[in-house]
Every structure is written in structure tokens, then in C-alpha cells.
Amino acid sequence: MLQPIDLGLILIAVLVFAAFSRRLEASVITMPMVFVTFGWLIGLSGIELVPMGAEREIIHVIAEVTLALVLFSDASRVNFKFLEQNFTIPIRMLLIGMPLTIGFGTIVAYWVSPDQPWAFALLVAAILTPTDAALGQAVVNNQRVPERLREGINVESGLNDGLALPVVMVAAIAVVQLAGKSIEGAPDNLAMFALMQVVLGPIAGLFVGYVTARLLDVAVSNGFATTAYQGIYFLCAAFLCAVFANMIGGNSLIAAFIGGLVFGATLKCSRQFITEFMESEGQILTMLTFLIFGAVMVPIGLSHATWKTFVLSVAFLTIVRMVPIWISLTGAGLNFEEKAFLGWFGPRGLASILFALLIVENYPVPGADEMLACVVLTVIMSIFAHGISATPLSSRLTKNNSHP
Description:
Elements: H1 4-19, H2 21-25, H3 31-45, H4 55-76, H5 80-85, H6 88-112, H7 118-128, H8 137-140, H9 147-178, H10 190-221, H11 227-248, H12 252-266, H13 272-278, H14 281-303, H15 307-317, H16 319-328, H17 336-344, H18 350-362, H19 368-401
Helix pairs in contact: 3-14, 4-11, 4-12, 4-14, 4-18, 6-7, 6-9, 6-15, 6-16, 7-9, 9-10, 9-12, 9-18, 10-11, 10-12, 11-12, 11-13, 14-19, 15-16, 15-19, 16-17, 17-19, 18-19
InterPro entries: Cation/H_exchanger_TM, Na+/solute_symporter_sf
Transmembrane segments: 92-112, 118-140, 161-179, 191-211, 232-263, 283-302, 309-329, 341-360, 372-394
Main location: membrane
């Protein structure tokens, strides 16, 4: 059980980070780096941050809630007029780059672990393909990066989570069936399940995003809503998208992103409260997620890490991601450095953790510990590699693009 002194240490860490946040934002040190490291030290010290036996379930819930909020928030701030003129970049990355990444990743995963079936390699690739909206904020919120690149990264990370989930589920079921095991609660019709996920998710997001935006406009224009509660309203709207999607059988992550897009495009009143909320209350949830990840998941992942998981992690952060994205952007009017930039900034984080925990909790997949170790190791490397490189590479890109 978490003792008062342990809670005090955590609160002091948050206070110190908040006090030096401006200095840290100007450096290569990011919030996920700080809190994953602090969480890992907490785990080493023996502090029980979450109840024993419920660690994975708690992380699963917190990661899903955090990811839904981040997706809704990022989508609500998308510049629609600009995106209409530059939609080819995220479309290419999603419809060409993502399938190529899963395919290439499957080949690499099978090459590293030929003793595992192809379905297991596909499962690992599908889990590690989605990029992370929370870790991508260091670039998405950097005004020095060209807007078409920022919006491309934002839209890609917002939609690839939900698009990857049906592939993850199909691969997990195939692995279990190949092992001769049964699955409780598995979809009877995988094709229908996948179709419902990618069709009903956007429908839920469209409906909730539009209705909540219109209601808020009415409330603000009539003086019914205070500024302080607009942030709470925004939070509930994000979660309602995810909940409604789950109720009708759609994908909650796609619903959250589409809902955010519609909310931002429909809202007529000032949306300053969105930025203020996400830069204050919203950050607490992200801090908590990475803190618990560092305390609980990092020790588990490192304990099962092998040379195979290390090679796979490095590969998925580099060639497995960068080559397909480069191919998908051929003919998109981007120069060498811009394509390399988009290929590199595909951080792995909450979505991969969420999918891995979903499989571990619900499917008796042989080799689950190795899979979880690979995911954890990839996320750790991504947090530090992408965090350290975000500012200097963004500055370099801006400098080079400023010259004719």
C-alpha cells in the first residue's frame, strides 16, 4: 500500500518538474523521460505504487483514458483548412506506409524469432506499428516545424491506433488457435468485428463530437457555462466518444480522434480553454500514466528482455518504420530531410502498451512475456530517443527549410 511518505515523494517530484518546466521544455529533457525514470526508481525501491495483482488492469485503464483524452485534444486543434490542402501526407502514411510497416515488421520479427509462427510475428508488428500522440506532442506543438509535417504526424498518430487494433485481434486469435487453445469471448466473425470497429467508431465520434460542440456553443452564448467548467465539459466529451463507441461496438480510439476533429471544426466559441486544460489538468493524467509505466511495466519488461527483443526494438524504431514511410511519401512533394523527419518521428507509447496488455489479459498467447518485453523495451527507447532528438532535429529542419 502507498504510504504517506511515498505519496509525498511523488508530489515533490511533480512540484519540482512544474517549477522548472519552462527550462526543461527548452532542453532535450521531456516529461515522459522524467516520470518514466522516476517511476522506475520507485519500482526499484520497493514502493507499491498500485495494488499487487491489479497492476496490468490499472495501467490498462489509465493508458486507455489518457490516450482517448490526448487523441480528442490533438484532433480538436487540427487546422482543417490547412489539412484540406495537405491531406495527402497523412493519407499516404496511413494507407500505404502503415500496411507496409506491418508487413515489413512481420518479416523482421519472424527473421529474429523463426521458432515462433508467422501469426506471432504479425501480432508483434501490429502492436508496434501505431505511433503515439502523447509522445509526438514535442513535435506537433513545435511551431518551428512546418505545419504540413506537424498535421501529418498528428493525424497519423490519431488514426493508426484504431486501424491497427483489428489486425492485433486477428493475429492474437490466430496465434492462440495455432497453439490449440480456446478463447473465451473472442469475436465469432473476425471480418464483421473489424468492419464494425472501423465503421462504428467514426460514427460514434461524429455524433458525440457534433452534439457536444453545439451544446457548448449554446451554453456559452447564453452565459450558462463558466470558463472553469468548460475544461471539465471537454474532458467528459472526450470520454463520451470512447464510451459510446464501445457501447455500439466501434473502436474507442478512432471515435475519440474523429470526435475531436468534429468538435474542433464545429465549435464556434473560443477554444482557448482546450489548450489551458491540456497544459494543466490534462498533463497530470499523462504524468501518472508514465509514472506507473516506469514503476510497474519497465521492471517486468526488462526482466524478460533478450537480445531478440533488443534487436526488434531497434529495428521497429528505425528501418521498419522509416523505409515504409519513405516509400509512401514518394511523389508527395517533400524533400529528403522532410521524409526522413516524418519517418523518424513515429514514437511508440500508450497505444502499444494498451494493445500488449489487452492481449496478455484476454488471450493465452504463447510467448506473451517475450512480446511484452519487446513492447516495453521499444517504448523505453522511443521515450528517450525521440525525446532527446525532437528539439535539435526540429531546429535543424527549420534552419534548412529557411534557405532557398
